[in-house]
Structure formats: C-alpha cells, structure tokens
Amino acid sequence: MAHDTLNKRLGLVAPKDLESLIRDLEAIRPWRGLLKSGIGYGIFILLALGAIYSPSPFLSLGLAFVAGLVVTTLMVMTHDAIHRTLTGWAWYDELYPVAVSYPLLWPHQTYRELHKIHHKMNGSDENDPERVQWTEEEYAKAHKFIKSYVRNQWIVDIFVMGGIGYIIGTLNRAAPFARHIKSVRRALIIDAVGIVGVNVLIYSVCIAQGLGLKYFLLYILVERMVGGLQQLRAHTEHYGRFGKAAHYFETQIFNCRNIRTNQLVSFFFNGLNFHSVHHAFVKVPFYNLGEAHRRLVAVYGDKYPILEEDSYFNVALRAIKRPILIGETDTGSPVGQSRMKGIKKVA
Predict the structure, then answer these.
(1) pTM over 0.85
(2) Residues spanned by the domain of 271
(3) Phi, psi torsion values for 240, nearest 5 degrees
C-alpha cells in the first residue's frame, strides 16, 4: 500500500530519468524534414495541376485522389512545424505550413495556438481545445439529437464532417480562448486575411481559364479525403484516454494511444502513431519517435503497460461499436487514469 501511494505521488518513473532516457533523440537533422516536405509538396503541386488541366475527367479524379493522399501527409507535417521539429529552421517551419494549409482553407495559425494549449491541458483539464471525447455531465445535459451524434461521433466526424467540420470545430474552439489570449486573436486575423487572399488568387486564375468550377469540385474531393483521415487520426490518438497522473510526463504518456502499424502508415502519419512519446517530449523529431517509443515501453514494461493497439481501423471499429464517455476518476489506477464509461441508450 505504501508503495502504491508513493507511485501516485512521485510517479512510476521520475521525470529526470525520463528526460535522460530521451535526451539524445531530440537532435534535429534538418535535411530529413526538408526532403520529405519539399519533395512531397512538389509532387502535390504536379498532381494538382495535372488534375485541374487534364481534359479527361477520369484522369482528373485519379490525380486528385492521389493528391489528396499526398497532401494529407503534408498536413501532418505542418504539425511538426508547430513544434519546430520539421527542420528546426524557424523561417521554414513558419512558411511551409501556410503554403500547405491556406489553399485548403485550413486556419493553421489558429490551430498552432490551440495545439500549444492542448499540450498543456491534455489529460488534466477538460477545457483542452482538442478534447475529442464527451464527459458524462455534458452527455447528460445534451439534447437527444446531440446525444445521437455523440453515440455516432466517429462515423459523423470522419465521413460527414470531414475537413470542413474540422475547420469549423477549430474556429469554434478558438472563440473562448480568443477572448483572453492575444495570440489566438492575432492568429484568427492572420488566417482570415491569408486564406481569403490565397483563395481569391487561386480562383481568379482558374476562373480566367474557365476552370473555376472544376477546381472547386476537385477541392471538395481532396477536402473529403484529407478531412476524413485527419479526423481519424485525431480521434484515434486520444479517444478513451483522460486522467491526470503523478507528473506531467506520465500524464502525457498515459493519455495517448499508440498504434502498432506498418512502416508505410507510420511514414504517412509522420510517426504520430507513437503518440505518447510525442506528447511527453515534443522536441523529438518524427524520425526518432519510434526509437523513443521503444525505450518508454521498455522502461514502463514491468510497472504499468503503455497503451498499444493494432491498426487505426481496429481502434475506430471498436470505438464505433462501443462509444464511451469520460467518467469518474479510478483511484485504484497507479497513474490516475480516468474510468471510461460506456454510453447507454438515451434516457
């Protein structure tokens, strides 16, 4: 009993030991991120131009589909740029996300500010702007229409809301923070001006060449793909994980889901399938997340297992079959992980 009490107070592994374990993996090699983002962006531009200017509708659709896959991984890399781990060069990690995000109507500057807050609040504060899961209290107070949404959240968010829903949700979650955080207000203004300016330019060129409608239809296809995959990733990373641990690092480690997947999918999501280590140590670049994850699994193996599950698809399927809410704290857990309560039928 005394040992359990000590674990709850000091943690299973001391913060200084965790920092020492990971420190050598925080070195950034700029060329890795530069090559991946630069080559990927060039391929995307070629695919997008081919889709817009191709006289064959079938070829246009095919090229747009591939472009959607490519730009999804480019969007994931904008996340690395937020943490300055894409290249480590401030100017590149500032400009690259804008070049990718604004044509897709994605408010990157706003998301950047919210994401910083998310890393501070994850697992410990229900005001977390990226919390994807509802609490029991919120569900109990919700209208029956909203309750239906919560029970079918994964399907609705991935296949219906998609990218547009992600954008609207981000702006909606930014509103309360913008009232008292100047950087969020500034980000909203910058995004509004930038997105409008970039898209006015794009549509002006396309309309002048009689391709305005075609560009819009191809954008919708890409938006569906990018939005759906980004929604899947966001839900998989944190759904069903919420509760404060003994110290910051363990709160992050045990409030994230790690996905065992093949190297291609891990490359596609830029290593974020190793999500615990990313949250605990944001300075670790994407190409070192796998090794950092293996070290954490080894050090926690005989104390408390780090959550690992097989494939994004399997995680989504289980959540669709059994949606859950954030419930009361389970004080019997050595990491203070919250108990997740299955959603029952509407009262």
Answers:
(1) yes
(2) 1-27+243-310
(3) 85, 10
